[in-house]
Amino acid sequence: MNTTAALDGPTQDFLKALASETRQQIMMLFAGGQQLTVGEVADRCGLGQSTASEQLALLRRGGLLTSTRHGKLVRYRADTPSITARLTDLRNYLGHCCPTPDTGANEAPKK
Predict the structure, then answer these.
(1) Helix, strand or coil, per DSSP, at residue 14
(2) Burial 48-72 (b: 16+ CB within 10 A, else e)
(3) CB atoms within 10 A of CB 28
(4) pLDDT, tens digit, 9 for 90 and up, residues 29-75
(5) pTM higher than the cut 0.85
């Protein structure tokens, strides 16, 4: 059996962060370069602030968000370079475990 390396920790965290429908919805708030606070995310998603904070922390740990502090406010935004790197890792992993055939998929199997 030919084994390939498992996904690295950051890519595993990335997939875990995206495994929740709530976190997927939160990520859509950051489309177009939006920067939002915990309170803004909570209001827009109908979540309590503590729940929104927990979800944002998981997204940040997964490399999907980054944050910057402005006085007492913390603003979150999509971490595009990290997302790109994780997607590249995932594409490479899937390419090793599930490569596309080199020949046309419509060919009849040989007997």
Answers:
(1) helix
(2) eeeebbebbebbbebbbbbbeeeee
(3) 10
(4) 999 999 999 999 999 999 999 999 999 999 999 999 999 998 999 99
(5) no
